[in-house]
Amino acid sequence: MPSSPSLDGEDARSPGALTANRGMPPTQEALARLAASMVPPPPPAWKRALSRISRLWLLAVFVIAWQLISMYGQRVNPQLDVMMPPPTAVISAAADLIARGVLLTHILDSLKRVLLAVGAAAVLGVPLGLAMGWSKRFRAAVDPLLEFIRPIPPLAWIPLSILWFGIGDVQIVYIIFLAAFFPVVLNSLAGARDVDTYLVRAGLSLGARPRELFLTVVLPAALPHIFTGIRIGLGIGWMALVAGELVAAPSGLGYMINNARTLFRSDYILLGMVLIGALGLVLDYLMRQAARFAMPWHRQ
Q: DSSP class of residue 1?
């Protein structure tokens, strides 16, 4: 009668198989092989790429509808070509600005201002929010001032910022910083305040000191809120960037949009809007990847 294969794939007459057949527990290597056999193999790379591309179907439908409306809508409204240029005209405008060597300068200047401002908002806002969520006394002292300044729109600070910093990058970065700072603070505060009390009590019962409790319990639990606040700050920062560059800037996507408005170049205006949306999408994707790296335990 033929012998049946053992758990780890060895012949039934081998020493490992005899050990398993005698009722001894299987080896760790055999258990690892069994666990690996139960995990389905990852799909091929082309299937993963196709799955990611398929998520963009709604965006593709939007672009196609935009193109068709711009092309055939001119029969109803001849000025539609100026009011709503098709995507092909926007691509031609991008090629024109790239050939002139100015498009990359606008993109890099806007990116630099947003990243500097949001980075400063994260560096200052995260510790402030965590401290407010950790200490009730500190929150009671800071919260009235914070809630007094927070409702003031960043655009209202533009005249004063021009007087303080002049016209240039510092003034624009300051406006973006004000827009991104408060979402970061409030989300960090919520993350530190909403930590599960059972986790805090467990840390205290194990003898954790306040500093250790903050670093090992409160901070990891608050990380999802912190990343959410930074993501929201990035989105609001792009809005404030355009407003700041519309008022006073020598370069940038907002400056390009305002300059195109004076020249009646709606294709340049739409190009600036498309680039802002695309850059915002890329930065948000990078933030989500950073969150997955920093929080492997958190379900996205």
A: -
